[in-house]
Amino acid sequence: MKLNPDCVRDVLLYLEENLEIKNASEFSEITLKQIKESLSQYTEDDVFYSVYNLYKINYIEGKINDVGNKKMFFCEINNITWSGHQFLNTIRPKTVWEATKDGASKLGVMSLHALSSMAMKISDAIVTDPAVISSIIERMM
Q1: Fewer CB within 10 A of the end CB, N or C, for the chain?
Q2: pTM
């Protein structure tokens, strides 16, 4: 199965928008079913695989029970971790995200770690290199 990077990004954006803190001391939960219903542009497999991998790389927290057979019987997500927020904040701008996907595609790497690393480098280049800024602005016009 291939990881769908757009689905990964959209899962994180959905979680960020919909997770809450209840009673000032308790996290709300979002189920896999809720995510699948809200991100209906993706297949169930893409959503499952995105959530599963985000959980395994510790970008999200919750209760996931896969009973050791890679089949998710129970899933409640209650938090995006610090690392997950850093990744999301890096890939939030469409320009950074598109450049990240383009670079990853050319290199043939689509792991979450590789996407995160590449997005960070692109983001750093954007804020420090005037040539990169000009190139992005030209592509947008």
Answers
A1: C
A2: 0.81
